[in-house]
Amino acid sequence: MSQETVYLKDYKKPSFLVDSVYLDIQVHQDHTIVDAVLEMTRQTAGELVLLGRDLELKHITLNGTLLNEQDYQLDSEQLVIHNAPEQIKLQTQVVIHPETNTMLEGLYQAGDLFVTQNEPEGFRKITFYPDRPDVLSVFTTRVEADKKYPVLLANGNLLEKGDLDNGRHYAIWQDPTKKPSYLFACVIGDLAVLKDRYVTSEGRDVALEIYAIEKDIPKCKIAMQALKHSMRWDEEHYGRPYDLDNYMIVAVSQFNMGAMENKGLNIFNTSCVLADEEYTTDAAIMRVQSVIAHEYFHNWTGNRITCRDWFQLCLKEGLTVFRDQSFSEDLQSAAVQRIDDVSVLKAHQFPEDAGPLSHPPRPDHFVEINNFYTATVYEKGAEINRMMATLLGKEKYRLGTDEYFSRHDGQAVTVEDWINALSAGSGTDLSAFLRWYNQPGTPKLEVTSEYVDGKYSLTFKQSLKANNKYPNLQALPIPVAFALFDPLTGQEINSDVYLFDQEQATISFDVVQKPVVSLLRNFSAPVNLEFDYSDDELAFLIEHETNGFNQWQATQTLLERILLKDHAVTPYINALKRTLPNMVKQDPLLASRLLDVPSEGYLGSRIDENYEPEIIQEKRNALLSALAREMGSFWKETYQALDPALQNEFSQAMGERALKNIMLTNMARQGDTAVFDLAYQQYRSTNNMSERLGAFKVLVWNDAPQAQEVIEDFYNRFKDEPLSLDQWFMLQAAQPNATAQTIQQLTQHSDYDLGTPNRIRAVSGGLNSNPVNTWSFGVQHFIDLAMYLDEKNPIVGSRLLQVLSRWYTLAEPKRTEVKNALTQLQPKSKNVSETLNSMLAV
Ligand code: TRP
Ligand code: ZN
């Protein structure tokens, strides 16, 4: 396999544009035939390059003439036609094999369903094509299959449908909008459908359809509501109505990622569309709504305005994540949504950016683009857009996005185009933000304070870790939202957003006494803040900050000091004692987050050398015990006072359920075995998955007498519900006492399936929630998986190997052991090789 690096600086326009495409896809049991007709026009000098992979070429004609082998050059990656004329009509026929496609890329069979996944470069596994996002065309698609697959879908409008001989039938679809090939989709299968309608602000009556297997249709209702809600939201917040007469979503259980925004025909991992409180958790229900919104929002940010090349991936993903986060902030509490988003950023993106896989949100080179669907591209990309939006304020931001849509609708553009349009529309020069896209690493923001004679000053300093691949690192524009509080009354006396865009700067305020400052409100920039707070000031902020996000941030800062720097635990516990009793009544959801304790994995990611997972685990357990003990009867009393069933507001009820489970966990930590009866009763009496799983976890993780019974009971109840069963696998793999045998039992279970990424992730993700296990028997687990998937599904294999990317921080002898194990690997795929090479190049 070639390991060639592609560089952003080498971008060249395609030599030919495709005016129209006609595809005819004939699915048979042991092969699929794809006929394609491409009408093309020359745009610039150069050869005609058609990309194609794993295609068996049957015949090819150019402007009506059959070509033979001396007329073109064909290798495993492309078909090059020399001396092509200005106007071309190219007809090809290829044979492909979706029935044996385990990579879940291109057209593949998943159980009884045939679906496509073409982003970023899957379309070339369906037919020969200039498979790059800057080639936009109009697609007409004929799909043909046996009638045992009654559903035949493709993008756009249904033109025709009919029966054929031999029990077969066909459908012809046409998508009126020009799109790049990565947005092409088709679906062939036996599915039921949930239907609804939505009338856009322009009066367009849109048919909405969600396809899933029959028994899952009731679980599609929340997704349908979220879809309609997203459609309205995009009209109201960005002035963007929908542009086709139908919008279809198809749920598939074997899928590499969350979901895919194919034009008018989204394909979703079942985990991101099925939502029902009996089968899925509250967290999953929230995720479904945000992914539905995400894919819908792509229709404008991604589809109508797409990327010029894959280096610009962050243009569509960063912006669309920012949009779905904003949507979700309207859905539940804005503070809690922000807490959850920042938790993800800090748990995944910060470590990624601090290690060997660090790259700018817009990378300037890659070997395998699939390796760049990263937390940095998605989450840090979203943060960059958030910073610009924060700085501009609502009105100017809207003027900026309006300008972007009117300038670039129908085009394939770059990050520069986005910044330029946003600057022009808002009347604010945002060009310095380009640096955020082009530089890797999390900036360190050091702030010091001084109070002298009625003057309070804050001095800011920023720095980026030196990176030899990016030698010219420049100062970044960092919006710092902050507030000052009166230390005696706890009242807010000042709040503002300060744009810090130099190496160093000082600002000052006239005040009558030294205030308490709250910095980086709402996490206004993705930086590592270092400020000389006293522990008492942090405790003060937990109590008095009115910004819920920063209340939470104060708990996390304090906890990091306790867990990593051996600070005393008392200020933290006292602050909770003063804050929580009221908050559990007024804002249960926020209260549940204030009890977050950074995970062992996150804490480990803050340690750059001589990392010993066992020590972190010990310290964290000690903290958890102290917290459980010190809060005394609070847990039990709160547990008894809460009744989610009485809440008619979902986020309120969700908060109460989260709290109830935290209360059970802490009662168990107090050593109160009576809690097992409470948990068992909760497990038995509820029909809500969050309650059932919360109780399950307390029983199983604490080896309660009822543990075995609920493991069996859960399995019997949900054995035909893959998403629920994923939770069953995950929680057992994640139990603190899990051993190599626990994992082995799970991976040898008859329901374990290496062909289903969700199931693999359930066990591996559960295992990885205990870093002590990850870095002992887990090393071999992840290596074996990555090497098995190297051939079967390298996209997923590469991601699983990344779990080990911080090997170099381990204390010896483990560091050398893991390094030796990694060094011996000889992966075949570009995906796994590139990841492994980067991991070892630290
Ligand atoms: N564009 C998709 C999204 O973010 C991402 C995606 C879905 C994807 N499936 C994929 C990326 C497979 C790579 C491979 O919404
Ligand atoms: Zn996306």
Summarize the SSE layout with pairings.
Elements: E1 6-7, E2 16-27, E3 32-42, E4 48-51, E5 56-62, E6 65-66, E7 72-74, E8 78-81, E9 87-96, E10 106-110, E11 113-117, E12 137-146, E13 151-154, E14 157-163, E15 168-179, E16 186-189, E17 192-199, E18 205-212, H1 221-238, E19 246-252, E20 259-260, E21 265-269, H2 282-297, E22 306-307, H3 313-331, H4 334-354, E23 365-366, H5 375-408, E24 412-413, H6 415-426, H7 434-438, E25 444-452, E26 455-463, E27 478-485, E28 492-500, E29 504-510, E30 516-519, E31 528-531, H8 535-544, H9 548-565, H10 570-586, H11 588-594, H12 600-605, H13 613-630, H14 634-641, H15 650-669, H16 675-685, H17 689-701, H18 707-718, H19 722-734, H20 740-747, H21 757-768, H22 771-774, H23 777-792, H24 794-801, H25 814-823, H26 830-840
Parallel strand pairs: 2-12, 18-19, 19-21, 22-24, 25-31
Antiparallel strand pairs: 1-23, 2-3, 3-9, 4-8, 5-6, 5-9, 7-8, 10-11, 11-16, 12-15, 13-16, 14-15, 17-18, 20-21, 25-26, 26-29, 27-28, 27-30
Helix pairs in contact: 1-2, 2-3, 3-4, 3-5, 4-5, 4-9, 5-6, 8-9, 8-10, 10-11, 11-15, 14-15, 15-17, 16-17, 17-18, 17-19, 18-19, 19-21, 23-24, 24-26
The protein binds tryptophan and zinc ion.
CATH topology of the largest domain: Zincin-like fold
- List cofactors, ions and other ligands: tryptophan, zinc ion
Percentage of helical residues?
A: 40-55%
Q: Assembly state here?
A: single chain
Give the total of domains: 4
Report strand order across the widest sheet. 6-5-9-3-2-12-15-14
CATH architecture of the largest domain: Alpha Horseshoe
Query: How far apart are the first and last residues' alpha carbons, in Å?
Result: 24 Å
Roughly how many Å is the radius of gyration? 28 Å
- Would you report the number of β strands? 31
Detail the poorly predicted runs: none
Structural class based on helices, strands and sheet pairing: alpha+beta
CATH superfamily of the largest domain: Peptidase M1, alanyl aminopeptidase, C-terminal domain
